[in-house]
Design a protein that fits this description.
The complex is a heterotrimer. Chain B is α/β, with parallel strands linked by helices. Chain B is 67% helix and 9% strand. Chain B contains 15 helices and 5 strands. By secondary structure, chain C is of the alpha/beta class. The chains are: A alpha/beta, B alpha/beta, C alpha/beta.
């Protein structure tokens, strides 16, 4: 029952989902405050979609508990569905229906009162930029439009919480930007937004993010705090020839915590940035890499993530949470 | 149960159906095709059975007998053969179905008052046709025999004899004994069963495959609302097919309808609900279209044809199989329709079957609702 | 190239057989169906429910009735005394035949007049009724003849007897005229055809619908390799089905197999290729699995009905008979019945084989041409 005085839209405790022997989501716990934009980040197969499906009430957890909008995910799934909007990974629109017909359909499903129906429809069409295409078949729309239409259909009934599962996959960057503008607009109105993505740059747009890897939550906090996580370590950007080979060589040197390929250059994680930098500037030419460029940079979320994952792979460390 | 949601689903489904004209067209054309086939082309009635003759006797007596065969509408004389090898070849190759062999001493036997035997060799593979044709042959020979006996008795000086026993036949309910009169009414359930299964068996499985079902189950729509909403447009199509079949039966094939039209349509509606729900169950359980397809064909189409009593009489089947036919809903409807069309009887006679039909429909609807889960996996 | 085909084969097998329900449908169901239908498909007429409405109740009338009862074709269910009761039995279907003799039946016979037996038949199932009436006529005829002989004997004395003619019939290939032997091979044929058609027609469309088609098209696979990879698994499954179902038919129903098994297998493979071709053509003209299914059905239904499986082709109007020349099932049924029941070889069946081969080549060719177009 929604009589709790707290302002958490989503509460999850030790949530678990097994498929046979495979543990897709492994005792995950977190909270999402009302009006927050919460991002769930992780590589494919990490358990993001499974988590979101459990929160939407369309997949039952095998153990653990959770509430969404105050309703229990195990026992009150149907009540949850009346209070959320869900956008699944495939956008799930009816391809053989027109834009307008799709909107009308979901209006009926959510029983939008007749007075509001027309207004909401126009709002969605405006928001998605599909006014002129209201009679077009959904199948002919491009990715960006489909995405916005799917979002529109999911929020026709103005739910307080929306779940978006990889809403921007396969969509061009401009559409992605526009999409996030919409998200901000909604958050500004007090809607809680739970979004999963594997685009690291999108994580920067969220209020808080959770990093999920192999079913476990390995980090949780604001983007800023996560980056300062690794303030203990410094990150250097090294540009040289034959980066792949260089990576091998560098990783064997002392004081090097991590080396990873980023585009054509290398990101080197080390405890003492200055010392390592000078060491590299000296050692690399000796090894046959002429004129390397070694610059300290502030870590990106991707650095953070990669580093965390690799740490994880090396040792089974428990979930780390940073108060932010 | 909220009507608005049901309506939304029904409307969406209708739009999708309209936008797939090919499937829709076939849903209408198929019954018509079946009706035409059964009305004009398909029959178990036998006539013009190909026959070859090996007349070893060559006497007026044998020729008289042969001419009776040739003159009968049930036989079509294909030719004369001269030896056994020819007979074998003709039957083996399928050129002829029967061979009549008149022995050499045929006329002599008759003259001397001994019973003369003629031999009929038949291709027994198609036993139905063979049985019927043999029956006709028997009749021809018997008539000939009687004529000889009567004629001879008269010639031998006795007073004219009447044929002792005469058989009068009266056929009820289908006086002209046209198989189409009982097959066409029996066809309606089969058509409906098939169309219903075909149309609905894919509908839910398709949404699972395409991902739209995942979206739907995250909304407040209830299972029963979804099922009912999906049923409605297919029900309309199904009833239209029934109407079409009844109209064609009446105006194209002149199949007499003696009973109540109202009862027919009410029962058709009940049956349709059941058949459509069965299709739904298949769609729900299968979760992908390929499997749904296979299941639909196997569970509805073939049994409807073979176990419904349409062509093969149920009463002749061994009892375990008769029990199985009780599970075939088309069976009840076939006997209902035959009763309504040919016998003109009503619920007083058909009440039992009508109840069973209602039970079937209710059970299917319940099953569909029971099986449908608003959860993945 | 073989490698690619092999890969496609494996993938297709895995996909199709992954679901245990599918395995059940493909392998268990046909056997179950064969057993059920094997028992069901019979047009033998035995134990026809008969009511006796004998108002004469004399030696003669009872003699006639007992002749009916002793044949095994008729089963006396009730002796009725009124018109209404007879009618009621017919209405309800409790009796299919009513034997009606009025008072004076024996008197007529004694007086040398023609006595009448009225046979009322329920024409609802006119096939059974017709056969039952045939039997009735035969029984009456024999009874009549025996009386006639008796009279002739009395009138003419034992020396000079008028002749009579009797028919001895012998059925070849199916001596007991068991309709099951006729229908069973047909059941095998229609079951296998259905599964093959459905699998093939859905197979290619499925990839189109789900979207994996594009994925495959990007690989260097060639059209015919794709087709082969898609159809061979189904051909194999169908072949296994045929063997399975035939074995059950032979063991369970004692279906005679007079011809050569090898020839049967050869003919089956040929037929399957044709069915595959048809399935593929359907696949190429459909955009969704629903359409594929409807189209398959639209082809299958008339094919099955016009194949000679249930309804003899010879009974059809001539125009329709010509149409059946286009139907591969027709030829296969002739072959399969020929091998099972008649034990004939290819010397007799070669026209059917040639016809199948022609149809197979045409459909496969058509399918691959259309397929290339959709890909290009």
């Amino acid at each position: 029952m929604d009589d709790s005085p707290n302002n958490n839209a989503v509460v999850v405790k030790d949530l678990e989902r097994r498929f046979g022997k495979f543990v897709a989501v492994n005792r995950v716990s977190f909270e999402v405050k009302k009006g927050e934009i919460f991002g769930f980040l992780g590589p494919n197969g990490a358990g993001k979609s499974t988590t979101i499906r459990m929160l939407c009430g369309i997949l039952a957890p095998t153990s653990g508990s959770g509430t969404v909008a105050g309703f229990d995910v195990r026992t009150e799934a149907e009540k949850i569905k009346a209070h959320i909007g869900y956008m699944s990974q495939k956008f799930s629109l009816y391809e053989d229906l027109t834009v307008e017909e799709n909107i009308d359909f979901y209006s009926g499903i959510y029983r939008i009162p007749p007075e509001k129906k027309r207004d909401r429809k126009e709002w969605v069409l405006e928001m998605a930029g599909l006014r002129e295409h209201r009679h077009s078949r959904t199948s002919v729309l491009s990715g960006g439009w489909k995405q916005r239409l799917a979002l529109g259909c999911a929020i026709l009934h103005e739910p307080p919480v929306i779940f978006l599962d990889e809403p921007t996959s396969g969509v061009d960057p401009i559409s992605r930007r526009q999409f996030w503008d919409l998200i901000y607009e909604l958050a500004g109105k007090g809607v809680t937004i739970f979004v999963t993505t594997h685009y690291m740059d999108e994580a920067e747009y969220c209020d808080r993010i959770g990093l999920i890897y192999r079913g476990e939550l390995i980090a949780l906090g604001t983007p800023a705090t996560l980056k300062t996580e690794l303030m203990q370590d410094d990150v250097l950007e090294v540009s040289c020839e034959r980066p792949q080979e260089a990576m091998e060589e560098i990783s064997r040197l002392s004081g090097i915590k991590e080396v990873a390929l980023f585009g054509k250059s290398l990101h080197v994680v080390t405890e003492d940035g200055a010392a390592t930098a000078s060491m590299l500037r000296a050692v690399l030419p000796e090894k046959g890499y002429a004129a390397p460029r070694v610059e300290p940079i502030s870590p990106s979320l991707e650095d953070v993530f990669v580093s965390l994952i690799e740490a994880r792979d090396r040792a089974e460390t428990p979930q780390r949470e940073v108060q932010g | 149960m909220k009507p608005r949601r049901v309506l939304a689903i029904a409307r969406k489904e209708s739009i999708q159906i309209r936008r797939d004209p090919r499937s829709l067209g076939m849903a209408i054309a198929m019954p018509m095709l079946l009706l035409v086939l059964f009305g004009y082309a398909l029959t178990l009635d036998v006539d013009r059975v190909p026959l070859v003759v090996w007349d070893q006797s060559g006497t007026p007596a044998s020729r008289e007998l042969i001419s009776r065969f040739a003159g009968s509408r049930y036989f079509s004389l294909k030719g004369y053969v001269q030896d056994y090898r020819d007979v074998e070849r003709a039957i083996d190759s399928g050129e002829t179905l029967m061979a009549l062999v008149v022995p050499r001493d045929f006329a002599g036997q008759i003259e001397s008052g001994r019973p003369a035997a003629v031999q009929l060799l038949a291709d027994g593979s198609d036993s139905n046709t063979a049985t019927i044709a043999i029956g006709y042959a028997e009749a021809v020979v018997q008539a000939y025999s009687r004529a000889i006996t009567l004629d001879a008795t008269q010639r031998l000086g006795a007073r004219p004899l009447n044929p002792p026993v005469e058989m009068r036949t009266r056929v009820w309910f289908n006086a002209d004994m046209e198989s189409k009169n009982y097959i066409i009414p029996g066809l309606i359930p089969v058509i409906m069963m098939v169309i219903a299964a075909l149309l609905t068996s894919l509908t839910i499985a398709r949404e699972w495959e395409r991902g739209t079902m995942e979206q739907l189950i995250s909304t407040p729509v209830k299972g029963p609302e979804l099922i009912l909403g999906k049923l409605v447009p297919y029900f309309v199509i199904g009833m239209f097919d029934v109407l079409l079949a009844v109209l064609m039966g009446e105006f194209v094939f002149h199949v007499p309808l003696r009973g109540s039209l109202l009862l027919l349509f009410v029962m058709a509606a009940v049956f349709l609900v059941g058949a459509l729900s069965l299709g739904m169950v298949i769609s729900i359980v299968a979760k992908n279209q390929l499997l749904a397809n296979q299941l639909a064909m196997i569970l509805t189409f073939v049994p409807a044809f073979i176990l419904s009593g349409l062509v093969y009489a149920i009463s002749v089947m061994p009892w375990p199989i008769r029990l199985v036919t009780y599970l075939v809903p088309a069976r009840y409807f076939v006997s209902l329709l035959k009763g309504i069309y040919l016998k003109g009887v009503g619920l007083s006679v058909l009440g039992g079957e009508a109840i069973l039909l209602v039970v079937f429909a209710a059970a299917m609807v319940a099953l569909a609702n029971f099986k449908f889960r608003k959860k993945l996996v | 190239m073989l490698e690619r085909i092999w890969q496609m084969l494996i993938k297709e097998f895995i996909q199709v057989l992954r679901d245990p329900k599918m395995k059940g449908v493909l392998l268990v169901m046909p056997v179950a169906q064969l057993i059920v239908f094997g028992y069901a498909v019979t047009t033998d007429v035995r134990n026809v429910r008969t009511a006796v409405y004998d108002l004469d109740n004399s030696v003669a009338s009872r003699e006639l009735v007992s002749r009916f009862a002793s044949t095994g074709y008729f089963k006396i269910v009730e002796y009725v005394g009124t018109d209404e009761r007879a009618r009621e039995l017919l209405d309800r279907g409790d009796a299919q035949i009513v034997l009606h003799m009025n008072r004076g039946f024996e008197d007529d016979l004694r007086a040398g007049r023609t006595a009448q037996l009225q046979v009322l038949a329920d024409g609802t199932d006119s096939n059974t009724a017709g056969i039952a009436l045939n039997y009735s006529a035969k029984i009456v005829g024999e009874y009549s003849q025996s009386i006639l002989n008796g009279r002739a004997l009395r009138l003419l004395g034992p020396v000079r007897q008028p002749g009579q003619v009797r028919l001895q019939s012998r059925a070849w290939f199916n001596e007991n005229l068991e309709s099951r032997n006729f229908y069973l091979p047909g059941v095998i044929a229609i079951l296998v055809t259905l599964v093959t058609l459905l699998l093939t027609s859905m197979a290619v469309v499925r990839e189109k619908e789900i979207g994996t088609m594009e994925q495959i098209m990007v690989t260097p696979i060639r059209p015919f390799e794709f087709i082969l990879g898609k159809t061979v698994p189904f051909a194999l499954i169908s072949l296994v089905n045929v063997v399975l179902v035939t074995t059950v038919g032979v063991l369970w129903f004692n279906l005679p197999v007079r011809g050569s098994i090898l020839r049967l297998l050869f003919a089956t493979v040929l037929y399957l290729l044709t069915a595959l071709g048809v399935g593929l053509v359907i696949s190429t003209i459909s955009n969704t699995q629903q359409q594929a299914m409807m189209s398959t059905f639209f082809f299958y239904m008339p094919s099955m009905l016009l194949s000679g499986f249930m309804f003899p082709i010879a009974n059809m109007p001539v125009v329709v008979q010509w149409l059946t020349y286009l139907n591969p099932m027709r030829y296969f049924l002739v072959i399969i019945r020929g091998i099972f029941l008649k034990g004939v070889g290819f010397d007799v069946l070669w026209p059917q084989l040639v016809a199948l081969a022609i149809i197979g080549v045409v459909t496969l060719g058509l399918a691959s041409r259309r397929f290339r177009k959709t890909l290009a």
